[in-house]
């Protein structure tokens, strides 16, 4: 094989590897919300029947996060 053909194959391999690497980072980042800003809120209620850690939290119909923990106070 001549040098030009080898360089083409190496370049193509690097481009494909970069494409899959970037795609993997984007997919994992979306799923785990790694690259999103996080803010913790505390909410006090008289009754929280059925509220469990892991339940989704919606604001104006849009999923805004999940319930991190539930604690009882006297």
Describe this entry's structure for a reader.
- Helices cover about 40% and strands about 10% of the residues.
- With about 70 residues, the protein is α+β, with helices and mostly antiparallel strands.
- The protein has one domain.
- The N and C termini lie far apart (about 80 Å).
Radius of gyration (Å): 23 Å
User: Given the structure, what is the number of helices?
Assistant: 1
Q: Compute the number of structural domains.
A: 1
Strand line-up in the sheet with most strands: 1-2
How far the N terminus sits from the C terminus, by CA atoms, comes to: 79 Å
Residue-averaged pLDDT: 87
Multimeric organization: single chain
Q: Helix- and strand-based class?
A: alpha+beta
> What is the H/E order?
HEE
The residue ranges in which pLDDT falls below 50 over 5 or more consecutive positions are: none
In total, the number of strands is 2
Topology record:
Layout: H1 3-32, E1 56-59, E2 62-66
Antiparallel strand pairs: 1-2
Could you give a short description of this structure?
The chain has 74 residues and is of the alpha+beta class. It is 41% helix and 12% strand. The chain has one domain (3-66).
Distinctive features:
alpha+beta, 74 residues, single chain, 12% strand
């Amino acid at each position: 094989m001549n040098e030009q053909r080898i360089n083409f194959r190496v370049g193509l391999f690097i481009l494909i590897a970069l494409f899959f690497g970037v795609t993997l980072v984007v997919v994992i980042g979306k799923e785990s919300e790694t690259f999103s800003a996080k803010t913790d809120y505390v909410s006090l209620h008289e009754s929280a029947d059925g509220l469990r850690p892991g339940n989704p939290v919606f604001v104006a119909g849009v999923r805004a996060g999940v319930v991190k923990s539930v604690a009882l106070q006297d």
